What we know:
single chain; alpha/beta; Rossmann fold; 8-stranded mixed β-sheet; two-stranded antiparallel ribbon; 10 helices; 10 strands; 18% strand; globular
Amino acid sequence: MASDVYRTPDDRFAELPDFPFAPHYVEIDELRTHYLDEGRGEPMLFLHGEPTWSFLYRRMIPFLSSRFRCIAPDYIGFGRSDKLTRVGSYSFAFHYERLERFADALGLSGLTLVMQDWGGPLGLRYAAMHRDRVARLVILNTGLMSGEAATLSPGLLKWREYAERTPDLPIGQIIKRSVVDRGALSDDVVAAYDAPFPTLESKAGARAFPALIPTTPDAPGAAAMIATRATLASWDKPVLICFSDSDPVFPPAVGEALARLIPGAIFSLIRGAGHFLQEEKGPEISAEILAFVRDRHR
């Protein structure tokens, strides 16, 4: 393994709570991407955000795997995937290319994309570029961050500033501080979010993402989001948008604006959850998705 690549030891992932899923790997250009692959049926691709990993979807996959083949990758730099140890190695273009190549490696089509946080910009860009491979979109607490003032909430900018001045990000505590009922998040769950990141060098990917938020329309990645917004304005496939009521980073108004942009999109407000709504309301969101799919197949 190259000296600038870190691979989290497997024993860090032993006995994670409510996480009975077998690991799967695909290697692209000598970098190993980990993913979960549960259930059978149409493929459903779960895209996590910052600074989480596929563990975030453990409360949804058991409900959805009876209807879908649930695939949840960890981006390079996250989870059980290999981690580049230099912050400057990461960019929106890097993550997007990896997503494309991952989908190609697994031969995915007819996709339901489930996206939250950075999973939104990546997944929505993928949908815009590969419309023929996508069957429907499920959008959770995310936005098209294009550098324009309207796409930069005070909470998003506050998070970006915090991450810039905190190199050794306390991953598990960040998750805990983001939920509505902090007492409901047990110590072993907090430890599971920390598990992939035992050293400062292993956190390079998590440290990189906040600085990649475009703050001007000419910043890297911004043009891709502006183009994606234009494509979504003429989208003609089913879209479910679920935003929680207590997320300062992507408040409900962001989701409502997406619902106005995308023709036929359905908006649902998830009550009693913060930024990581999959952690707090996974079963409820899963029920919303199953009802949405059922209604659209009538």
